[in-house]
């Protein structure tokens, strides 16, 4: 779950349980033709086992909520955290259930379940044979053998790990409870360096100029939130700017020239501009914005409203200028977006 379990979500969820709420009955939908479209990972309610994946067919506009269940006839599990495409498979990380479901990209049927992790978060391939997987409760980065789809080892980190970026033959790993970003050499599976950035780094990316950007929520408000720009040639921070609000979900345009993130509303910043020139293109208003994605071809902005974290989310689609284009309903606590182009 985003921002270390979303403390507010947990409080609301406990209160909801006290009035004997039950998750809605599951309706079986047919498996859609998985053509060009958008996948949305829905976290669901912690310990209710109602995480899911929604799919919107961009040719027809049809939305299938819970495409995983439609394809496999069993529930995905507890807290659908993230989804990554590696080769012919999607790796769906199920945080609360402590597993990764490996599904065929053509059918969405499970071909393997990866276990041996406590509370997995995000995954990135580092070669054709190996990937890394972060974990909330294991103080390590798991090594995943992509041939057997099993965990083959781990790299010790002093605290829990979150976001991953593979660049320059190195893997950058955020550790939100520490003030460091850890750097791993994937050829040796060893930590070789750190960047002292500050607490709360939750998302990272590399821009068109080959700079690494770090976004922090201030470790749940215990420290200042910030956006930092890093020179990966010498691992030094070029600029670090304090933000007014906790920030999350750093993403970018296809050409990596424009950054987007959540800072109450949706904020946009060209990478060649000063942080003070960022603009809010979508206001918070009465929404509870939670997930964010940018379509790689149209640059349309997809942002989810999680409401009270208990009911189904609604996804809003805006132009890159912040003009609303459409909306559709998804699952509970929609957090991530994956765009399938063909």
**Oligomerization state of this entry?**
single chain
Largest sheet: 4 strands, antiparallel
Give the strand content.
Answer: over 45%
Helix content: under 10%
Mean pLDDT: 91
Alpha-beta content class: mainly beta
The beta-strand count equals 28
| Morphology call | globular
Strand arrangement across the biggest beta sheet: 3-2-1-28
The helix tally amounts to 4
- Termini separation comes to 29 Å
Rounded to an integer in angstroms, the radius of gyration calculated over CA atoms is 19 Å
Describe this structure in words.
It contains four helices and 28 strands. The protein has 342 residues and is mostly beta strands. The two termini are 29 Å apart. Residues 3-26 have low confidence and may be disordered.
Summarize, please:
The protein has 342 residues and is mainly beta. The chain has helices spanning 2-5, 7-18, 67-72, 218-221, and strands at 37-42, 52-57, 63-65, 80-86, 89-94, 99-104, 110-114, 120-125, 130-135, 140-145, 150-156, 164-167, 170-174, 180-185, 190-196, 201-206, 211-216, 226-231, 236-242, 248-252, 258-263, 265-270, 279-282, 289-294, 301-305, 312-318, 324-332, 334-340. Strands 3-2-1-28 form a 4-stranded antiparallel sheet. Strands 4-5-6-7 form a 4-stranded antiparallel sheet, with no helix packed on it. The protein has a 4-stranded antiparallel sheet with strand order 8-9-10-11, with no helix packed on it.
């Amino acid at each position: 779950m985003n921002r270390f379990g979303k403390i507010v979500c947990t409080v609301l969820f406990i209160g909801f349980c006290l009035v004997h709420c039950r998750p809605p009955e599951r309706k079986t939908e047919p498996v859609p033709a998985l053509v060009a479209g958008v996948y949305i990972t829905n976290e669901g309610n912690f310990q209710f086992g109602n995480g899911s994946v929604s799919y919107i067919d961009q040719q027809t506009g049809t939305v299938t909520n819970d495409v995983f269940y439609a394809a496999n006839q069993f529930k995905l599990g507890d807290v659908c955290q993230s989804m990554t495409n590696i080769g012919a498979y999607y790796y769906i990380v199920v945080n609360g259930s402590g597993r990764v479901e490996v599904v065929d990209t053509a059918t969405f049927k499970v071909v393997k379940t990866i276990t041996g992790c406590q509370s997995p978060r995000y995954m990135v391939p580092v070669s054709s044979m190996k990937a890394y997987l972060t974990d909330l409760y294991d103080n390590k980065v798991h090594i995943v053998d992509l041939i057997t789809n099993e965990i083959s080892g781990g790299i010790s980190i002093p605290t829990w790990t979150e976001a991953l970026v593979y660049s320059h033959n190195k893997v950058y790993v955020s550790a939100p409870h520490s003030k460091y970003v850890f750097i791993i050499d994937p050829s040796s599976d060893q930590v070789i360096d750190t960047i002292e950035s500050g607490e709360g780094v939750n998302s990272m990316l590399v821009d068109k100029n080959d700079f690494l950007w770090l976004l922090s929520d201030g470790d749940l408000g215990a420290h200042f939130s910030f956006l930092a720009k890093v020179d990966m040639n010498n691992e030094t921070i070029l600029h670090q700017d304090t933000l007014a609000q906790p920030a999350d979900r750093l993403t970018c345009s296809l050409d990596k020239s424009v950054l987007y993130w959540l800072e109450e509303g949706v904020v946009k910043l060209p990478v060649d501009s000063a942080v003070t020139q960022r603009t809010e293109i979508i206001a918070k208003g009465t929404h509870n914005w939670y997930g964010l994605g940018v379509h790689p071809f149209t640059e349309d902005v997809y942002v989810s409203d999680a409401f009270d974290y208990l009911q189904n989310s609604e996804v809003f689609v805006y132009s890159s200028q912040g003009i609303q284009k459409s909306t559709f309903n998804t699952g509970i606590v929609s957090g991530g977006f994956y765009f399938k182009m063909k």
